[in-house]
Amino acid sequence: MFKMPISVIVDSVQEAKEGAKVAGYANLLFTGGMVNLGVKQEIFKFIKDREGDSLVCLFKMSLCESVDRFKNRHVAFRPIQILEIKEKGGKQ
Prior knowledge:
The protein is mainly beta. It contains one helix and five strands.
């Protein structure tokens, strides 16, 4: 796994239920798709009122491999955790 900065737009933020391991959940839009991630308390506090804002976040990335029906291998990386917020953008 490695770290990678990605420019995202905060689509929505929801507080987690009591007893959850994370403070909340964030739906983030980026070039190539959308991801729903659990976020830590300090990141949740920062993004909870920023729906529609553009941010650059440092993500922990995971390798995702697949094989199509023609037996060709494909490799992609997907964000699995926000490590920190690098740049604070504005409304889109």
